[in-house]
Amino acid sequence: MKIGDLVHSWLTEQTGIVVATRLCDEGERIEGSVQVLWTTQGLSMWNGYKEWKDIRSLEVLSESR
After folding, report:
1. What is the C-alpha to C-alpha distance for residues 26 and 62, in angstroms, rounded to an integer?
2. How far is CA 23 from CA 18, 28, 45, in A?
3. Domain for residue 65, yes or no?
4. Is residue 54 part of a domain?
């Protein structure tokens, strides 16, 4: 999972775009640390906000190039 990927949350049925990943001191991605900008509301009460998510709760719909 990388910046620009289109993702879907199975829990809230929201769709969003990965906008950031967390890096450790060695520059390796920490598993499960991606920030998503949600673009559809799904079953959530909110839309258009950013949230850090565990990648195990996300499905990649489309990978960025």
Report:
1. 28
2. 14, 6, 30
3. no
4. yes
